[in-house]
Amino acid sequence: MTEPRIKHSIPDARWPTQAEAAASLWFSPTHIGRLAVEQRTWVPAMVPWRATEDGFVTAEVLDWYARFAEGRPGVLVVEATGIRDIASGPLLRIGDDRFIPGLRRLVETVRERSEGHTRLFIQILDFLTVRRRPEPATFFARYLPISSPLRERLARALADQRWLTAAEADVRARLAAAERSLVEAVLDERELESLDYGYRERVWDTHLPWIRDLPRVLPALFAEAARRARDAGFDGVELHYAHAYTMASFLSRLNDRADGYGGSREQRVRVPLEALAAVRRSVGDEYVVGIRFLGDDVVAGGSRIDDAMFYGVELAAAGANYLSVSKGGRFEDARQPKIGEAVYPYTGASGYECMPTVLGDERGPFGRNVPLAAAIRGAVRAAGHETPVVTSGGIHSFEQAEGILRRGEADFVGAARQTLADPDWFRKIRLGLGREVRRCQFTNYCEGLDQRHKQVTCKLWDRDVAPGERDVRMALDGKRRLEPPAWRPPTPS
After folding, report:
1. Where are the domains of the chain?
2. Which fold has domain 6-129+207-463?
3. Using an 8 Å Cβ cutoff, are 205 and 258 in contact?
């Protein structure tokens, strides 16, 4: 889906009574591995852009997760957290032991604010280099490699053999002044992409030694990060094998590495399985280790549901305690960024499928990705595994979530954007106060902030001021409230 065609309305909702909620599957207890979980409600990982520039927990991070904890979901997953100790902006990191004290404070905060009702996992990931789209003059002057094949293409395009031996500075100057047709004739596909979108590494760039070494390096990095998560007190760790990041790229059909870690499904899944095994050795058999992965890459040449069903069975057999299914969110079909900005993997058709909005095709955004989770769950059950499967994407009401569970399409139903709109919605429903739920409009206002690396908020927060509320904290731009309005259950009369 590339062009919005229909604006969908938010479906009407019938909210359950307190007794109906208490008798529901969604609010029923279960287990993940040996870990008891109070209910099958789930908050997937969301990046709020509230950490320090060097990856530490801040007071704003604590407040963000405290508000979700007050809604008492069964499981809350902390944002994608980098396993390497490298600069990545205001995103949490777990690549060194010095991050443990801040993460431990985060765990303690969630336990306190949920009053022990919520299980807390942390999502850990690896990502490769992605650079901002450069100014063309800067690209030609500094970044473009002047190789022999490039010289040959330039000499051929200009019918002038002198370019084979011309000074590098002259080649750069000629290309910087060239018309677009000459640039397209001389630069290869990856060089053109670096000019138009910014340089981006792939897991199949095995001519680069650090990419070639990923199968050797990644398992230990994931294992150490998981050990830190356990030491910080998290109830479990979620390995991020989805979207535009390193492990998802190993799993993708686009991965054509020729070293035994690309090509066939069996080879593409090797690094993810080896990382899972290393994590399990690091944290032990009783600690929860889940996987977030794609049911469909969406992009041309990428993996499809049959691949995902295969991966789900393999990961379950290897001891994953749960499988959380997403869709799309890839770099390959992302829109061209502005000069000075980095490509964002949620702007193309695969991005829409990852976070569908009310502007879309006839299917609409609500529960759009549930069939993928259902197919993976079916394959896992057919293979003899009871591994829980988590679905999410366009989840908006109790009846919708309860129907998914009753039809056996998933074991947990997660909601990111609806929970962002109203962190208390699970608790309101459970108390029979569904009419008070602040309902997400699925316009992706929040995603637009994420794209610009701004503190993520919900536009609905600014329309709802709690009685007597004072000293409302604002986002850094001074235009939006930083936290959702406070809510307390009514006092029994």
Report:
1. 6-129+207-463, 136-196
2. TIM Barrel (3.20.20)
3. no
What are the backbone angles phi and psi of residue 75, rounded to the nearest 5°?
-135, 135
| Beta strand 412-414 pairing with 6-7 | unpaired
| 3 state SS of 484 | coil
Cβ neighbours for 159, distance < 8 A, ≥ 6 positions apart = none
For the chain, what's the residue count?
Answer: 493
> Whole-model pTM?
0.96
Q: Please calculate the CA angle 130-135-141 and round it to the nearest 5 degrees.
A: 95
Q: CA–CA separation, 301 vs 299, rounded Å?
A: 6
468, pLDDT greater than 80? no
Strand partners, 481: 474
When pLDDT is averaged across residues 278-294 and rounded to a whole number, the result is 98
Give the alpha-carbon dihedral of 376, 305, 226, 211, to 10 degrees.
Answer: 160
Q: Is the pLDDT of residue 4 over 60?
A: no
Closest-CA residue to 484 (of 470, 468, 454, 464): 464
Helices marked H in 383-424 — which ranges? 398-406, 417-421
How far is 254 from 127, CA to CA, in rounded Å? 17
Q: From CA 317, how far away is CA 23, in angstroms rounded?
A: 32
Amino acid at the residue 408: G
Residue 219 and residue 85: Cα distance in Å, rounded? 15
| pLDDT digit string, tens, across residues 423-466 | 999 999 999 999 999 999 999 999 999 999 999 999 999 986 66
Q: How far is CA 228 from CA 121, 222, 284, 380, in A?
A: 12, 10, 13, 30
Per-residue model confidence as pLDDT tens digits over 323-377:
999 999 999 999 999 999 999 999 999 999 999 999 999 999 999 999 999 999 9
Q: Which residues of 365-389 are buried (b: 16+ CB within 10 A; e: fewer)?
A: bbbbbbbbbbbbbebbeeeebebbb
CB 230 within 8 Å of CB 255 = no
Angle of CA points 364, 368, 372, to nearest 5°: 155
CA distances from 472 to 65, 69, 70, 340, 465 (A): 17, 20, 18, 33, 9
Q: What is the DSSP string of 337-386?
A: PPTTS---TTSSHHHHHHS--SEESTT-STTTTHHHHHHHHHHHHHTT--
What SS3 string covers 93-145?
Answer: ECCCHHHHHHHHHHHHHHHHHCCCCCEEEEEEECCCCECCCCCHHHHHHHHCC
Distance, CA of 226 to CA of 237 (rounded, Å): 6
Residue that has been written with the tokens 């060097």 in this structure:
54
